[in-house]
Structure formats: structure tokens, C-alpha cells
């Protein structure tokens, strides 16, 4: 039995290491290209600002998750001491929710910038969206910080059992007894997941409706419009993200359900996909951005 537990943990850590390092490389590439462009141009547009913060949050999240998984398997006795565990839980929750909200902000930004509606409120948002981006960052940061503090407080409770469930690599690693003490934290976390998911769905629906109207107008007038390419490119990016985000949302909910399960196949699959998501979506963002795609194809040979 001890051999099976060790083999399970080693396999999980190996897969997590492979996925985490691939995701860190992809997001580090985004950060490097954007920072070099920032130094050269002395400025960043709103889209690049969101991509920069999204790449940074994903890189940090993958680093902390991998370090937590690795240490929980190699040096569990040194990891599960106060305040190391609490700090690991805090930073993991903070960067995870920054990742969720920055991703949702990027989808909303694409929708407002590219979609065409004659509604006065939508036109107002299109004009003011660049000024609203810093406020989106501030709101996302405050919400993520709040959830991080709550996660720190939950991990500091005496109800938490610090015997490791090897290789989980996140808040679910601690075997937590789900009772009334933890209901507020799970409720707030679930609300954050659902709200960001709803924002992504709304952005995809509005952009799809705008694309449909724009295509009908072009066919009626028998003319071509360059904005169609922008519509289609953004639509592909958002729809691919919506599919992955939907799976990720299900995994986040299942992680809350299976948080007390040790070495189950469901928790293993959840963790595997959650480590795949940041790198895979960032790769899609690279090929959706002409500047990033051109730089990647240039350096790959």
C-alpha cells in the first residue's frame, strides 16, 4: 500500500511538473515580448496591459502550485508548518482568482472593442473602455485579495488536517472537514467562479450576435469589410476560451466537492486539467495576437 501511494504521488508530481513548466514557458514568452515592446514603445495599449497581467498571474500561479506539489511530496514535514502552509494557500488562491478575473476581463474587453451595437450605453462603454481597464484591474485584485485572506484564515483553522493528500498542488491538498466553519469561504469562492464564468458567456453571446448581424449586413450590401476578420479572430479566441473555461469551471466546482478525497482518480483528473488550462489558453492567445504569433514563429527555428 505504501508503494502504491508513493507511485501515485510520483506520477502526479511528474505530470504536474511537465505541465507547469510548459505553462510557465508559454506565459514567460508572453511577458518577455510585451515587456520588450513596452521598453521600445514606452507605452502599452489596454489589450497588452490585460495580457501582461494575465501572463504574470498565470506564471506566478503555476510556480507556486508546482513548488507546493513538489515540496508536499519530497518534504511534507517541512511544508505543513505554520505559516508556510497558510502563505502557500493565500498566494495560490490570490493568483488563481486573478487568473480567472483577468481572463474574464480580456473577453469583456474584446467584446466591447469589436462588437457593433447602436445602443447608447454600449457606445459609451466602447468610448470609455480604455479608461475602465485600470478599474477592472483594481476590482479583480481586491476580490482576489479578499478570497486569498479568507483562504489563509481557513487554512489557519484547527479544523484543517495537515496530513498531505499527495500531489494535489493547491488549496484542496489539505484534507479539510467541510462543515459550517468553511461554508462562507466555499460560498464566496463559488460566487467568484460563477460570476467570472457568466461574464465570459455574456461576452461570447454578444460578440456572436454582433458577428451574425455584421455578416447579414455585408451580404445585403454586397461589400467586404475588414472588421469581419477582427470579428472572426476574436470569436475564435473567445469560443475556444469558453469551451476550456466551461471545463475549468466544472473542475473548480468538482474540486470543492472532492476536497476531502485522497488519491482518487477524479481529483487526479481535476488537477491535471487545471495545470493544462493556463498554458493551453495562453497558447491560443499567442496565435490570436499577430504580434505574439509572429515573434513565436520567428524564434522557434
Automatic annotation (TrEMBL):
<keyword id="KW-0716">Sensory transduction</keyword>
<keyword id="KW-0919">Taste</keyword>
<keyword id="KW-1133">Transmembrane helix</keyword>
<dbReference type="Pfam" id="PF05296">
    <property type="entry name" value="TAS2R"/>
</dbReference>
<dbReference type="GO" id="GO:0016020">
    <property type="term" value="C:membrane"/>
</dbReference>
<feature type="transmembrane region" description="Helical">
    <location>
        <begin position="87"/>
        <end position="112"/>
    </location>
</feature>
<keyword id="KW-0297">G-protein coupled receptor</keyword>
<dbReference type="InterPro" id="IPR007960">
    <property type="entry name" value="TAS2R"/>
</dbReference>
<keyword id="KW-0812">Transmembrane</keyword>
<feature type="transmembrane region" description="Helical">
    <location>
        <begin position="20"/>
        <end position="39"/>
    </location>
</feature>
<keyword id="KW-0675">Receptor</keyword>
<keyword id="KW-0807">Transducer</keyword>
<feature type="transmembrane region" description="Helical">
    <location>
        <begin position="238"/>
        <end position="259"/>
    </location>
</feature>
<comment type="similarity">
    <text>Belongs to the G-protein coupled receptor T2R family.</text>
</comment>
<feature type="transmembrane region" description="Helical">
    <location>
        <begin position="133"/>
        <end position="152"/>
    </location>
</feature>
<protein>
    <recommendedName>
        <fullName>Taste receptor type 2</fullName>
    </recommendedName>
</protein>
<keyword id="KW-0472">Membrane</keyword>
<feature type="transmembrane region" description="Helical">
    <location>
        <begin position="186"/>
        <end position="209"/>
    </location>
</feature>
<dbReference type="GO" id="GO:0004930">
    <property type="term" value="F:G protein-coupled receptor activity"/>
</dbReference>
<feature type="transmembrane region" description="Helical">
    <location>
        <begin position="51"/>
        <end position="75"/>
    </location>
</feature>
<feature type="transmembrane region" description="Helical">
    <location>
        <begin position="265"/>
        <end position="288"/>
    </location>
</feature>
<dbReference type="GO" id="GO:0033038">
    <property type="term" value="F:bitter taste receptor activity"/>
</dbReference>
